[in-house]
UniProtKB/TrEMBL annotation:
Summary of the function given for this chain in its UniProt record: Probable S-adenosyl-L-methionine-dependent methyltransferase that acts as a component of the wybutosine biosynthesis pathway. Wybutosine is a hyper modified guanosine with a tricyclic base found at the 3'-position adjacent to the anticodon of eukaryotic phenylalanine tRNA.
Catalyzed chemical reaction(s): 4-demethyl-7-[(3S)-3-amino-3-carboxypropyl]wyosine(37) in tRNA(Phe) + S-adenosyl-L-methionine = 7-[(3S)-3-amino-3-carboxypropyl]wyosine(37) in tRNA(Phe) + S-adenosyl-L-homocysteine + H(+)
Lineage: Eukaryota, Metazoa, Chordata, Craniata, Vertebrata
A GO term, aspect molecular function: methyltransferase activity
Domain tRNA wybutosine-synthesizing protein per the UniProt entry, residue ranges: 10-118
Name under which the protein is recorded: tRNA wybutosine-synthesizing protein 3 homolog
Pathway field: tRNA modification; wybutosine-tRNA(Phe) biosynthesis
Cross-referenced SUPFAM superfamilies: SSo0622-like
Gene3D superfamilies attached to this UniProt entry: tRNA wybutosine-synthesizing-like (3.30.1960.10)
Length: 243
């Protein structure tokens, strides 16, 4: 069976399903990234969250919040105030935990080489217990302090989403150029360097591609991104964006 055709059918089937998230729609801050990925034939998204501040009431086993059987006292994708949390804590009868969670994006890729374009790493989170068995264990001033940190992380997360979107656009454009680049022209330029070893040939190939395309991409450069073409397969592109 044609794997590309199978992937297209799978993508169409998944994207036609109803959004089963509590909100029922894609978060505004991540909508452009979702649209960009779903507009590519080699990708589609299965779930996403732009980042959120949440207050969960449940039980803590060791150092981890047990999400099973817990209650969501507060969920917001925007900056949060102390009063919001204090009011929500009145409904807590277990171990309430305040969390900030950054962008989450689940993407299905047609092939391994397509997945190599997406590489994001993050430790940009926050998780602090506030109550135990319904009893508040911290002061309101401390809650106010925590929310200042959480809101700062929310704002930084928004900036990182914008940067990631720019990096992703850049990488996809560069990948498209590399895939369409005439191989005959590349090979001709490689020969002009007269390499003696295969490793030198690979370096020469990368260099001549860069010479031809730098002018087209000079306005798309983004900080915090590195891209490289694997010489063994000129359709492979690696993008790393520090989250």
């Amino acid at each position: 069976m044609d794997r590309s055709a199978e992937f297209r059918r799978w993508k169409a089937q998944c994207l036609s399903k109803a959004d089963l998230s509590l909100k029922g729609s894609v978060d505004e801050d991540v909508a452009e990234i979702v649209q960009l990925l779903n507009g590519q034939e080699q990708f589609f998204t299965t779930s996403s969250c732009s980042g959120r501040i949440i207050l969960i009431d449940g039980s803590i086993n060791g150092f981890e919040v047990q999400k099973q059987n817990c209650r969501w006292l507060l969920v917001t994708h925007k900056p949060c105030t102390k009063d919001d949390v204090i009011v929500a804590l009145r409904n807590a009868n277990g171990d309430a935990v305040l969390k900030f969670e950054p962008l989450v994006l689940h993407v299905q890729c047609r092939q391994l080489q397509d997945a190599q374009i997406l590489a994001v790493r993050s430790t940009h989170g926050l998780e602090v217990p506030l109550s135990h068995e319904g009893k508040l264990m911290v002061t309101e001033d401390y809650i106010d302090f925590l929310l200042k940190i959480a809101n700062q992380k929310m704002e930084e997360n928004r900036k990182r989403i914008e940067r990631f979107y720019s990096c992703l656009q850049h990488a996809l454009e560069r990948q498209s150029i590399i895939r369409s680049y005439p191989k005959e022209k590349v090979n001709k330029k490689i020969n002009a360097y007269s390499p003696k070893k295969k490793r030198n040939q690979e370096k020469a190939r990368d260099r001549c591609i860069a010479e031809e395309n730098d002018k087209e991409l000079e306005n798309n450069d983004s900080p915090g991104i590195s891209a490289a073409v694997f010489p063994e397969d000129d359709e492979d592109l690696v993008l790393t964006c520090l989250w």
